[in-house]
Amino acid sequence: MTGYPGLSGKSSEIVYCYSKLTGLFYARMNTYPSLTTENERIGSISAILFRIKPSEGFKADLRRYLDSYNSLRVNRNNPLRSWSALYVRMMYELARQNSDIDLRYLTRELIYQEDLPCRSVRRAVEAGILPQVEYWEAYTREI
Predict the structure, then answer these.
(1) Residue 83 placed within a domain
(2) Any domain includes 35
(3) Among 41, 59, 113, 130, which one has the highest count of C-beta atoms within 10 angstroms of its own C-beta?
(4) What is the dihedral of CA 56, 58, 60, 65, to 10 degrees?
(5) 45 lies in a domain?
(6) 19, 80 in Cβ contact below 8 A?
(7) Total number of domains in the chain
């Protein structure tokens, strides 16, 4: 953002932003979405997923995996920005592929008891929840 400090922040109904990931500046309308029951459902699932409290090693594996994940051809125009976004995407894909899993009731104990593939990034890739990237076999630290 060096050289463009004035192009950040709000101006009436427009928000100016800089993306560190892409190196681009953009502007968008400052809007606040109307809250629906779907917002409540997604919010409660997100809270439950983060109550699992992934280990620091697991988060580090997600961060390293994320770099390669964002370089995949299908993800270049819409990269994920953080390990947490990748974590949530992985969990939703787990639930999509296995209709027996309800994210509203997922716990760390259930993950280990049912031996779910979200225990590690490597196992998620092996199960087809996440795509293969370079060095995916090395991401073995558990949730």
Answers:
(1) yes
(2) no
(3) 130
(4) -170
(5) no
(6) no
(7) 1
Q: What is the pLDDT of residues 24-44, one digit of tens each?
A: 888 888 877 788 888 888 888
Could you give the CA distance from residue 47 to residue 126 in angstroms, rounded to a whole number?
27
Q: Which among 143, 126, 42, 132 is positioned nearest to 87, based on CA atoms? A: 143
Residue 69 lies in a domain: yes
Whose structure tokens read 């409290």?
53
Cα–Cα nearest to 118, from 141, 135, 134: 141
Taking the CA atoms of residue 58, residue 137, residue 46 and residue 56 in that order, the dihedral angle to the nearest 10 degrees is: 10
Backbone φ and ψ for 11, nearest 5 degrees, come out as -140, 105
CA 129, 133, 137, 143 torsion-angle sign: negative
Phi and psi based region of residue 132 (left: phi greater than 0; alpha: psi -120 to 50; beta: remaining): beta
**CA 122 to CA 137: how far, in whole Å?**
5
Closest of 87, 1, 19 to residue 48, by C-alpha: 87
Range of the domain at 72: 54-138
pLDDT digits (tens, 9 = 90+) for 45-93: 999 999 999 999 999 999 999 988 988 876 667 788 899 999 999 999 9
**Among all chains, which residue has been given the structure tokens 């090693």?**
57
